[in-house]
């Protein structure tokens, strides 16, 4: 397996510097954040302007990667492709197509996104997702790209009390893959399943054929927060990454059993990326702290890979 990280956590570091730092720290790959360059949402970045990327720009980027012996494991653009506002929905889907175009130019085999949601019945949302993604997977396939969705619930993203991404559980995966059986898989993140109390090791085993890429992120329960807020408090205030009763952590700092999880991936024949998605509040606040967190996560994953 190859170790990498999602570059959104270092949004202000230019592409060339980012690649050089990743190589110097012993990473094998990067999962390139590909949001619009003017995005202001937390935990997003646009390290290449994919909306304007042409063949010459792609060639220059490939030269930088080759010089440092780093590859892009996937392009990342996670937004609500089923947003209830038609103008935003069209904007997000249009940018996703530009990300797919850029992946084709760069020779990147995978593009990750969210299904998304709007307030409504799950079955209707899944049918709409199926209609959209049947079209998108053909568009991607024509460019030599496979699409994948991440299993984050994105609670309260669209409406308070509801998930904002209908791809967070085995039930929904089955429904989605029945709608879109070809060229669609998962960027599998065990941290979401951990706090949802879904068996992530069993899920990795049973859905191995649909795991195209892996997000290496941990999570931990906060007992004092669980007492005060209860498990229905999916966020504090307007911050969707801080619930009060659980929080994301670096691999090895939470409750995920990385040895069992990685051993299951190996047994299933997975040899792709383990991409650290940095959302650990203990390693935020400065570029130095973020890099310290990435080093910690990489070190833990390296140790596990040697022993599992």
Write a short abstract of this structure.
The protein is an alpha/beta fold and 308 residues long.
Structure characterization notes:
The protein is an alpha/beta fold. It has ten helices and ten strands. The strands form two sheets. The chain has an eight-stranded parallel beta barrel, surrounded by four helices. It has a two-stranded antiparallel ribbon with strand order 8-9. β1 (2-6), α1 (15-24) and β2 form a beta-alpha-beta unit. α1 (15-24) packs parallel to α2, α7 (200-206) packs parallel to α9 and α9 (258-267) packs across α10 (287-307). The relative contact order is 0.13. The model has no long low-confidence stretch (mean pLDDT 93).
Give the count of helical stretches.
Answer: 10
* CA-atom Rg in angstroms: 18 Å
Protein structure class: alpha/beta
Order of helices and strands: EHEHEHEHEHEHHEEHEHEH
Mean of residue pLDDT values = 93
Oligomer: single chain
List the uncertain runs: none
Number of strands: 10
Q: Which shape, going by the Cα principal axes?
A: globular
Distance between the termini: 12 Å
